[in-house]
Amino acid sequence: MSVALIDIGIGNLHSAEKAFVRMAEGRQPIHVTADPEVVRRADRVVLPGDGAFPACRRALAEVPGLEAAVLEAVRAGKPLFGICVGMQLLASVGHEFETVEGLGLIPGEVVRIAPSDPRLKVPHMGWNDLVVTGSHPVLAGVATGDHAYFVHSWHFRVANPVHRLAYVEYGDEVTAIVGRDNVVATQFHPEKSQATGLRMIQNFLEWRP
């Protein structure tokens, strides 16, 4: 068993790598990689992302064969975990700065957070309590009221409500976790979300769709 942690050269993956290594406890090697062959050989794939949707989307597409390897892994039934902008890339389309097609693995669009309360600032930054609305093996032991750490200005508006597994209240319902088949993803950073995030990472490493 091995895990490919995709490195598209945007953002520091040290914290994510450290969290996955910790929860793998030596049972599954964690490869930080942009090599399509390493992704193809891996049993699980993690797709993180930082910054803006268009930049991450282009960075993924610019590595020859990498996007195809990620999609092949999903089609082969391998578990995939998207994190932050990595979650947003799973959507059909993103509207940050410009309209850019996503990977289309979970139908929906990435839209700007628009809190109804003008006192709430964007970006949405800091700790917030999850409202869990769906069941999923990666959510085992995670419940409404558990908190996670967010830093974002855009969120995933799913086309099918069944694919939204959790949200947070921030002047509106802001998508926090999505899932479909062998794909699951969080808007928050699990590696920075203490017990809640580490539990989800451990569940992902043990998940067999």
Automatic annotation (TrEMBL):
Keyword Cell cycle found: no
GO biological process: L-histidine biosynthetic process
Pathway: Amino-acid biosynthesis; L-histidine biosynthesis; L-histidine from 5-phospho-alpha-D-ribose 1-diphosphate: step 5/9
Subcellular compartments: Cytoplasm
Pfam family, one: GATase
Active site: 84, 189, 191
Record field: catalytic activity: 5-[(5-phospho-1-deoxy-D-ribulos-1-ylimino)methylamino]-1-(5-phospho-beta-D-ribosyl)imidazole-4-carboxamide + L-glutamine = D-erythro-1-(imidazol-4-yl)glycerol 3-phosphate + 5-amino-1-(5-phospho-beta-D-ribosyl)imidazole-4-carboxamide + L-glutamate + H(+); L-glutamine + H2O = L-glutamate + NH4(+)
Purpose: IGPS catalyzes the conversion of PRFAR and glutamine to IGP, AICAR and glutamate. The HisH subunit catalyzes the hydrolysis of glutamine to glutamate and ammonia as part of the synthesis of IGP and AICAR. The resulting ammonia molecule is channeled to the active site of HisF.
UniProt main location, coarse: cytoplasm
Protein name: Imidazole glycerol phosphate synthase subunit HisH
InterPro entries: Class_I_gatase-like, GATASE, Imidazole-glycPsynth_HisH
The enzyme's E.C. designation: 4.3.2.10, 3.5.1.2
An example Gene Ontology CC term for this record: cytoplasm
